Automatic annotation (TrEMBL):
It comes from Laodelphax striatellus (Small brown planthopper). SMART domains: IG (SM00409). One of its GO terms (molecular function) is axon guidance receptor activity. The keyword Signal applies. This is Ig-like domain-containing protein.
Length: 204
C-alpha cells in the first residue's frame, strides 16, 4: 500500500476498526480522489463522518485536503445468487438452443467468466455458435451474465461454472447440464409370408 493510502487507512481504521482493503482507484487533475474499501454497511455513517472530519482537519501528515463535497456509495459484498438454464430442468434436447444465466449482487466493477468442464469458454475462438452478454437487472446492485448456445449437441453436456470477480473477491457457482439425445426410431422390416400351394391336376 502506498504511503498516502496507508496514512488514510490508518486514520479510518482508528475510527472504524472493521474497515479493510482501502485503496485509491482514481485521482483527477482537479484533486478529486476516489477511494474503495470494505466495511460493514451499518458503519456507513461513521465512515462519512470520519472523512468529513479528515477534510476539516485539512492535513494528515504531509497530505493536504481541500474543502469539498464527500459522496459515499455503498455496494453489497459479492454474492452469486444463482446459475440456471432457461428450461424447467437442467436439461436440453439435442438440436435446441439454450441460455445459461448467472446472477450476482455486487458493484458495477464485477466481471464474469464462464467455464465448461474446467475450460474457459471463449466465444471469439469457439467453433460452436455461442455468445455471451453482461447486463444490469432491475434489482438494485444486481448484475447478470448470459451464455447462449445454438443447436445443442452431445458435446454441450457437462458442468458449467460461472466465475465472478469483484474488487478482488472471487466466487464460483456451477450447474450440471444434460443434453437429451433425439429419440431412436427403429423401423422393423415388413415380413411377408409366402405360402407355397401345390396345385394338383385332376383328370376326369
Amino acid at each position: 500500500m502506498p504511503p498516502q493510502e496507508g496514512k488514510v487507512f490508518k486514520y479510518l481504521r482508528n475510527k472504524i476498526p472493521k474497515i479493510d482493503g482501502l485503496r485509491v482507484i482514481n485521482l483527477t487533475l482537479e484533486g478529486d480522489i476516489t477511494f474503495h474499501f470494505f466495511a460493514n454497511k451499518r458503519d456507513g455513517r461513521k465512515v462519512k463522518d470520519a472523512l468529513n472530519e479528515l477534510v476539516e482537519k485539512r492535513h494528515l501528515g504531509n497530505i493536504t485536503f481541500a474543502p469539498g463535497k464527500i459522496a459515499l456509495r455503498q455496494n453489497p459484498t459479492l454474492l452469486i445468487k444463482e446459475v440456471r438454464v432457461n428450461q424447467k430442468k437442467p436439461a436440453v434436447r439435442c438440436g435446441d438452443d439454450f441460455i445459461l444465466s448467472c446472477t450476482a449482487l455486487g458493484s458495477p466493477h464485477m466481471s464474469f467468466r464462464w467455464f465448461k468442464d474446467g475450460m474457459v469458454v471463449n466465444e471469439t475462438i469457439a467453433l460452436r455458435n455461442i455468445w455471451t452478454k453482461q447486463m444490469k437487472t432491475d434489482v438494485s446492485d444486481q448484475y447478470m451474465s448470459l451464455l447462449g448456445v445454438k443447436s445443442a449437441d452431445a458435446l454441450d453436456e457437462g458442468r458449467y461454472t460461472c466465475q465472478v470477480t469483484d474488487w478482488g473477491i472471487e466466487q464460483c457457482k456451477t450447474i450440471d447440464l444434460e443434453v437429451i439425445p433425439p429419440p431412436a426410431v427403429k423401423v422393423m422390416p415388413m415380413t411377408i409370408t409366402v405360402e407355397k400351394v401345390r396345385l394338383e391336376r385332376n383328370t376326369y
